[in-house]
Structure formats: C-alpha cells, structure tokens
Design a protein that fits this description.
5 helices, alpha+beta
C-alpha cells in the first residue's frame, strides 16, 4: 500500500479552488492595496495558496493549436491552480473587455472550465474580480459569481 502524501491530499474541484483563491486574493487586496506590480501580487498569492496546501504553477506556457499547427508556447498564464483553475492577474486602473477575452482564450486552449480574472489595481476587490466560464458548466450560477458591469450597448 502506498502511503504517500499525494494519497491523502484532498481532491478539490475548480469551484472549491476558486473559493479559496478568491479568499486569499481578497485578503491580499485588503493588506497590500492597489499600486504594486502584477508580479508582486502573483508571487504573494502563489505563496498564500501553497501555504494552504494547494499546488500552484506560475507563468505556465499555454500551447496554441490552430489550423492543424501546434506551438508549444504561445502565451503564459499567470497561475494554474491544481491543474484545474486558471488565474490571470492584472494591476491596472480599469479592466478592459480584452482581459476577459484573454482569459477565455486561455481556458479554451487549456481545455479548462473555469478561470478567475483578478485586478489588484481596482479600488475595491469586488470590482476587480471576475469569474470566466468556458462553456456551459454546472457551476455557472455559482454564489461566487461576480457581476460584469458590462456596457449594455456592447456584446462584451
């Protein structure tokens, strides 16, 4: 019988992982506030998650597969949590619609159902945290859903 730590590690789904990431990111936003470089938020958030027993990979290569061609490294995702949840971080005054599209593209290329877009540059955490769902998912109506505050005159 194998007695490794991997056997006793709790298996969390993307929904549970997103709740933990949101909790840690909220605490980081409250503690640090806006104004730091994205790389600072990335390293601190990754450490916070690791200390909670969660596997986090930083700057993960996102391969591109288009029109029968494959490129091993087209993009880099900020954080990949337990191989199930993509977390893209920003530190800008306002998110642009292209930021959500970027996360959705990464989710499609990685074949993942859920991603978080977190902007530490926002005045409040609520306005800087968005859930991005890749296709219809059972958790699409999650309690953690963040309003998009989208412009009603666009399809963004």
């Amino acid at each position: 019988m194998n007695d490794s730590r991997e056997d006793t590690k709790p298996q969390r789904d993307a929904e549970e992982l997103s709740a933990i990431v949101v909790d840690c990111a909220y605490r980081l936003h409250v503690e640090a506030g806006p104004g730091l470089l994205e790389s600072v938020y990335e390293v601190v958030l990754a450490r916070m998650l690791t200390e909670r027993g969660i596997e986090v990979k930083r700057q993960v290569a996102v391969p591109i597969r288009l029109m029968g061609m494959t490129f091993d490294e087209g993009f880099r995702a900020d954080l990949l949590v337990e191989g199930k949840l993509l977390v893209e971080l920003k530190s800008v005054e306002n998110l642009s619609p292209v930021h959500s599209k970027q996360v959705l593209t990464y989710l499609r290329l990685l074949n993942l159902p859920l991603g978080l877009l977190i902007n530490f540059g926002s005045a409040t955490f609520k306005h800087g945290c968005k859930r991005i769902v890749n296709g219809p998912q059972s958790f699409a109506s999650s309690r953690l859903r963040v309003n998009n505050n989208q412009d009603p005159n666009t399809n963004e």
